[in-house]
Amino acid sequence: xxxxxxxxxxxxxxxxxxxxxxxxxxxxxxxxxxxxxxxxxxxxxxxxxxxxxxxxxxxxxxxxxxxxxxxxxxxxxxxxxxxxxxxxxxxxxxxxxxxxxxxxxxxxxxxxxxxxxxxxxxxxxxxxxxxxxxxxxxxxxxxxxxxxxxxxxxxxxxxxxxxxxxxxxxxxxxxxxxxxxxxxxxxxxxxxxxxxxxxxxxxxxxxxxxxxxxxxxxxxxxxxxxxxxxxxxxxxxxxxxxxxxxxxxxxxxxxxxxxxxxxxxxxxxxxxxxxxxxxxxxxxxxxxxxxxxxxxxxxxxxxxxxxxxxxxxxxxxxxxxxxxxxxxxxxxxxxxxxxxxxxxxxxxxxxxxxxxxxxxxxxxxxxxxxxxxxxxxxxxxxxxxxxxxxxxxxxxxxxxxxxxxxxxxxxxxxxxxxxxxxxxxxxxxxxxxxxxxxxxxxxxxxxxxxxxxxxxxxxxxxxxxxxxxxxxxxxxxxxxxxxxxxxxxxxxxxxxxxxxxxxxxxxxxxxxxxxxxxxxxxxxxxxxxxxxxxxxxxxxxxxxxxxxxxxxxxxxxxxxxxxxxxxxxxxxxxxxxxxxxxxxxxxxxxxxxxxxxxxxxxxxxxxxxxxxxxxxxxxxxxxxxxxxxxxxxxxxxxxxxxxxxxxxxxxxxxxxxxxxxxxxxxxxxxxxxxxxxxxx
Length: 680
Prior knowledge:
By secondary structure, the chain is α+β, with helices and mostly antiparallel strands.
């Protein structure tokens, strides 16, 4: 019996060990990883990078306020050990290789390894750019350019440096808003300023400049563009710069002309470092401790990291001053306050994304599909994988599958292009049937016209409809069609001949609301203003009818105190009936929007513009005719109505704030009373 028990125990232990080894386990990290969906919102995804090593010193040499870092092709790590006035070179095992610039450098804040393996160092205290050999020999140094083109008052306080393959040095100088300084390393000649940040002038500043005197403007703080915080250069010679500031472009990818060719934004106030990976993917680090990875075209792949709360958790930072990426895709992040380097290794999920991206960028679309599908299987919310899959299908001319993938990715441009191709195929296959339908329609129209002329069906029905009292309510409803052709006569009929009624107007108000909802949620995917699959019907009901009630009430009150002749029921009915063009033509545009692409978007925009202008004209005529105003008086009433709406909204907002404050006061008093009773 004991022997049997031992066998059972052994079997249970072996089964448990087998289960442990076969169940996939993902290590918990102190941070979360996010990606960006097609609407630009962050969604959580699998961990993309995990810390596999931390370096706090090279042998016995510790870092002090290190400001920059680079990793060369052999894997050596170069650290600008700013506080100790030197450059430390070591490997990822923490072994020291050499010390560069000891006794020469005063405050090295930026370093760069050139294509010919020279080390460029920006020293802001020495106000120089130093060039060292790989072994640490000082080769050359550059001071402030003497060229008159540099500017007499322009500062030269080098913070960051980069070098292209033509040996042109790009220097970021603190406080120099003219742009990135360019110096040729071979001749020492000042080339000029490169790609300055643009000054963003607020409407208030523009107003001040228009009315203030020169003396008053001189007392104001000058509007100068932000200086870039860091710089890098890729193998193709494209320059990457990150800047801080509310109105500055967070990241720029600059061509030789200094033009930004990257259509993306870093939604972070403090980007501090930029690096380029082997797939031309762009890594941006924030002072706040977040690391962003973008594709070469600016699509966000991952964002992870964050600020440490003092518990010294791995993967979090007190601050980041620099990042670098090695040949294997490992990310090195330098924390100047913790005086350490954390090395992040890509997970299997990130490697799968990179594999898919690499295959796609190399033009191997067929091979990229399966990795993209695997990414989607692992995370259905990873919209960039749907985007990559859609692009692969599109390149293969599988337009229906591409359209579906682009729809999942919320990528409207790609969806439009794929739908254009799908529609062309459908038109080629069905054009003959469309031709038959048109012919049958024309024949049916002629037959109906001849029969109606012979038997007078239409006239007899119209006569019976107009004479029957039973259909009086329906006549008031369909009277709205008269606003299309005879608006002035129709408003007279509404006011004096009772051709319309309040119940009929409310019926059309509900129809208008239904069209508004249909336009919002059921227009074509590429023309929809809300996110795909998003519905908020309760909010639509409240906002639509609240705005309607506010407008009609304010307008009627203004008309009442300005000798308006119309009664409230006439104003209400006339206001709603003025939306006749919207009622008759907007549904057609909603249907049509599901069959159009961006190539025909101008037609939709033009039709909508005509409808809204038409409604505006009818509203103007309604105010004028029902109230008996002149044209000038009508403009006055419109202005007063808008002003009263504004005042009413402000009053409602003030009342809301006061009510919220009162509720908060009552709650705080109640909580204080409960606290004191419990502590007696």
